[in-house]
Amino acid sequence: MEFSDLEKIRYEKIQRLIAAGISPYPTRANPTHTIQEAIAAFTAGENDPNATPIQATLCGRLRSMRVMGKLIFAHIEDSQARIQLFLRINELGEEKLEQFREYFDLGDFVEAQGIVMRTRTGEISLQVHDFRMLAKAITPLPAAKDEILDGQVIRHATLADPEVRYRQRYADLAVNPDVREVFRTRARIVRALRDFLDSHGFLEVETPILQPIYGGAAARPFITHHNQLKQDLYLRISFELYLKRLLVGMLDRVYEIGRDFRNEGVSFKHNPEFTQLEFYWAYADYQKVMDFTEEMLRYTCIQVLGKPTFTYEGHEIDLSKPWRRLELRQGLIEAVGIDINEHPTSESLEAAMRAKGLNPKPGTPRGKLIDGLLGDFLEPTLIQPTFLYDYPRDISPLAKSKPTDPTTVERFEGFIGGMELCNAFTELNDPFDQEARFLEMGRAYEADDEERHPMDEDYLRAMRYGMPPNGGFGMGIDRLTMLFTDKRTIREVLLFPHLREREED
Are 315 and 287 in contact (CB under 8 A)? Predict the structure, then answer.
């Protein structure tokens, strides 16, 4: 290892500890309470004159320290709370107090034993009777900020540079409690979604991540190779086709929460690896799934945030009200002034776009042109919860056509905060129509186009056994977390987002 000057100083302290017979990395810790538990126990009996003093052994990272002659005030922090350590020569003796002053630095993990008490300034503290090192931090926690407490300057570690935060998430979590809270919120979101689906009779299942044929979405896959089988495999881009196979097998309500992988661009709302919820519901259609989505997200918001409202980028979002429902065609008329029903071919739509001063790429399929208009002009305006519904058939190869219009499918997407959150269909269950759609998509797109959907013969075989009519739904967990935590970029809600390599990495 190559050490900086500060790291060399800390490394020398490790050597001195070892020479003194003190392990800088002992095998075990022996906490009796978490910090939060110790504070709660003290608070509960504080006003009871007959209460037994709370003796506690607490563990945490050393976050601040100030020396005042024969006193040392310090703070340790665990994952949920922090407490002041009150170290006095009276309890510890001069040698032990000097040991703390000499060997302990911010960032070290500490075990401290003592009695929980309240200082004259009113702060709940641990009056320390003994302590030991649990893990010596060689690298100082990033940056620092000053805080004035009782007239004293205390230095605290902090970290603000997004680039460093994403690349060194372990340091980010260590010094930024609000970041830890983001990921606690994320865990509560997943738990609430599971609880809701389980309570409505859905079965959680697992489907293959490595797939011989990718499908279920329009995206470019990652490709890998199985050496023994001498077979190329794909990291899944969706759970859809496997979950719908289970409907054939008489599992009427199924869902999965897991990772999908798409070999696509990175942006504020895209990461190559992301978490998705998908469910499939026999005998339901997209209207029923719309109603269910409203109920599910309202429930999740209340469970996670304690209320059905939240703020995202300055907008108060209210999930207690019915979502706005807007036909895609009408939404595009309002946003761009183009009626897609009047332009049934890509050539006609391309000409209409040019007449509006837009510059579409020549030869782009009609479906991709429509998707571009939606993403560029309509989506950013959909701040309050909105369902866009009834999509063109040529951008929805797995959705069922409307009985009154074979060119339009029963599909909706949900939008909040100017961002797509979820996507759902009345699912196609006619194997002949599905085969025709696969063939049509193969002809409409170039072989290397990421929108091209491959033929899946086994899926068609499953459909031929009979698939019940059903409604399907997919939602990005990362995007829902962005909304509930008011984060603009997906990198803030992924523990380890994908980043471009740097030369020094």
Answer: no
For 92-124, the pLDDT digits (tens) are 999 999 999 999 999 999 999 999 999 999 999
190 phi-psi bin (left φ>0, alpha ψ -120 to 50, beta other): alpha
Task: List all residues 6 or more positions away from 130 whose beta carbon is below 8 Å from its beta carbon.
Answer: 92, 96, 112, 113, 114
For the chain, the domains span 5-158, 179-323+385-493
State the architecture of 179-323+385-493 in CATH terms: 2-Layer Sandwich (3.30)
Reduce the DSSP state of residue 362 to 3 states and report it.
coil
Domains 5-158 and 179-323+385-493 fall in the same CATH topology: no
- Domain covering 5-158: architecture: Beta Barrel (2.40)
How far apart CA 292 and CA 428 sit, in angstroms, is 19
Considering the entire predicted model, what is its pTM? Answer: 0.90
d(CA 116, CA 33): 11
Question: What residues have CB less than 8 Å from 110, skipping those under 6 apart?
Answer: 59, 60, 61, 62, 76, 85, 104, 131, 132, 133, 134
Question: Is 445 a residue whose pLDDT tops 70?
Answer: no
pLDDT digits (tens, 9 = 90+) for 314-359: 999 999 999 999 999 999 999 999 999 999 999 999 999 999 999 9
Q: How far is it, in rounded angstroms, from Cα 306 to Cα 363?
A: 50
